[in-house]
Amino acid sequence: MVEMELVGVRVELPSNVPIVVLREKTGEHRILPIFIGGPEATAIAFAIDGVEPPRPLTHDLVVLLLGELGAALERIEVTSVRDGVFYAELRLRGIDGDHIVSCRPSDAIAIAVRTGSPLFASEAVLDDAGQPDPGLVEEPAADEVVEQFREFIDTVDPEDFAS
Known about the structure:
Blueprint: E1 2-12, E2 17-24, E3 31-35, H1 38-49, H2 58-68, E4 72-82, E5 85-94, E6 97-103, H3 105-115, E7 119-121, H4 123-129, H5 142-155
Parallel strand pairs: 4-7
Antiparallel strand pairs: 1-2, 1-7, 2-3, 4-5, 5-6
């Protein structure tokens, strides 16, 4: 499992479909975009922004239930992707031992953000659906591009362009 960080929730244009974006904390820093539903996107965004609703929303209720039952969310894991559908697990520690609960990644992330629990993804998921982080892809420095162009100009002969 590879530890991930939550980058945020975005809307994919032009379809206006929300996605949650995770990024590897170390290594290649690949990003993992996961399409999610509107209510889950709102729930994650509320948790990121620290919005406290007057009454608990579903994910808040889950966190309250865990506390009442003496259980803790140890971590979430995005375990697989099949036919474009992502699968996740809640790794819980209860008074009677450890438990694994299968769930949607969006729900797992919404709960993890509320509890401060770490996020993980399997290497296989990252190999299948991970993408290079566009913010980390290095473009050549401007002076390097200019130097390459000068070298080209110095070596080119006008006859090279004759037909």
